[in-house]
Amino acid sequence: MSNTPDDDENTNLFTGQPRKRSSLLSWLRGRFLAGIVVAAPIGITVFLVWKFIEFVDSTVKPLIPDRWNPETYTQFALPGLGLVFAVVGLILIGTIAANLLGKSLLNVGDWLIGRVPFVRSIHMTLKQVISIFTSGQSRSFREVVMVEYPRKNSWAIGFVTSEVKGELAEKTPGMVGVFVPTTPNPTSGFLIYVDRSETKTLNMSVEEGAKLIISAGLVVPEPAEPEMNSDNADDFRSKVSRLLPSFDRKTGSE
């Protein structure tokens, strides 16, 4: 059977193997997708940061007196000025609250808010939640676990919130609270209480667990490298000692 002209064009004359068809369109498509992979995270991050700065500026700038506002003298907008004033203001508030007078004022404010129905519940709840996240003594949201949810042999990623306390500890001892976020919005989810022995602790950090949930399982963290214990250290030294003589012989022969 004779080869057609098209077969000759698609066959390498020297090797007789079929030629690899390279298309300019496929090359451009690959480079375009590679550009998206590199530029999309950077662009989205810059966009979110810029929107956050604009939100803070639009909220704080109207509160700045004209004589303290540098834009009054520069005659042009200064992006991030509101964010700077907000940070400085929070530092001043924290400094005042750390003093004896500031603590007294805070106690008076808590007492006044505690007299207002419904508002006191919101205030106290938010105060407790913020205190938990800002204190370094709590282990809340510092441990990533897997739990069988919503049914048996079906595992979900969750974050241990706290050990059971009070009435919960009396009726369900040994249980822990696990927050199971939803995908791709981790701010919503479910709080379930399971036995500590029924959880599987993962070595990943909370940030890595959040990335895994937000990406719907597409971004999986790499396994952590094993720690250098005494056995690993001895094995490493033995390998190095075997390599050094050969390296010395090579360098000596040169």
Question: Which key phrases capture this entry?
Answer:
254 residues; alpha+beta; five-stranded antiparallel sheet
Instruction: Give the overall form.
Output: flat
Decide which structural class fits the backbone: alpha+beta
**H/E topology pattern:** HHHHHHEEHEEEHH
How does the major sheet shape up? 5 strands, antiparallel
Number of strands: 5
Radius of gyration (CA) equals 31 Å
**Share of residues in helices:** 40-55%
- Summed up, the helix count is 9
Strand content of the residues, in percent? Answer: 5-15%
Strand order of the largest sheet: 4-3-2-1-5
Can you tell me the residue ranges where pLDDT is under 50 for at least 5 consecutive residues?
A: 246-254
Report on the structure:
It is built from 9 helices and 5 strands. It has 254 residues and is α+β, with helices and mostly antiparallel strands. Among the domains are: 99-134; 144-214, no CATH class. A 5-stranded antiparallel β-sheet has the order 4-3-2-1-5, with helices on one face. A hairpin with a 7-residue loop joins strand 3 (175-181) and strand 4 (189-195). Helix 2 packs across helix 4 and helix 4 (81-98) crosses helix 5. The protein is flat and about 65 Å long. The two termini are 60 Å apart. Mean pLDDT is 77; it is low at 246-254.
